[in-house]
Amino acid sequence: MAAFPIIIAPDPELKKVSAPVERVDDGVRGLMDDLLESMRAANGLGLSAPQIGVLKRVIVVQLPAGEDEEPDPMFLANPEITWASGETYGGEEGCLSLPDHFAEVTRPAGVRVRYLGRDGETVELDLEGIAAKCVQHEMDHLDGILFVDHLSALKRNIILRKLAKWKRQNAA
Q1: Which residue range forms the structural domain that includes residue 66?
Q2: Domain CATH number, residue 133
Q3: How far is CA 131 from CA 110, 117, 163, in A?
Q4: Of 37, 124, 128, 138, catalytic
Q5: Which of 3, 13, 98, 124 counts the most CB atoms within 10 A of its CB?
């Protein structure tokens, strides 16, 4: 297990569409472990493979749990939404690929997602609230979509220009 650097927007790699995995094998499980380690190192709630430069349809999500318990991470390969509620859930979103930038994004309040789990089994899971929002956010990355793509062009461009400036300054 290794923590990898997270790609920061704007970067053309984040706009690419990821390929499905054929099956969950040791290589995919290793990728899942690397994603979890990278996400934890960056203090995130979720991470997708494209954010570390791997164009595979794999994400991990680990939501906060109670005070004395460690939450179980969710490992999802080839996730797809099979149902979305008509109700919406809004709230501020951030992203490890857009550090220190947040904006209000509205998404379906509940979703049913089908995916291959860590052992290759097909799982179908109903999610609501923050869990649904987080999984949808990470799934967007698999299709080259960032949370800022859900904003007005003006807001999106302001954030992306600030990040481009930040990257130039830190590269020097």
Answers
A1: 12-171
A2: 3.90.45.10
A3: 9, 16, 27
A4: 138
A5: 98
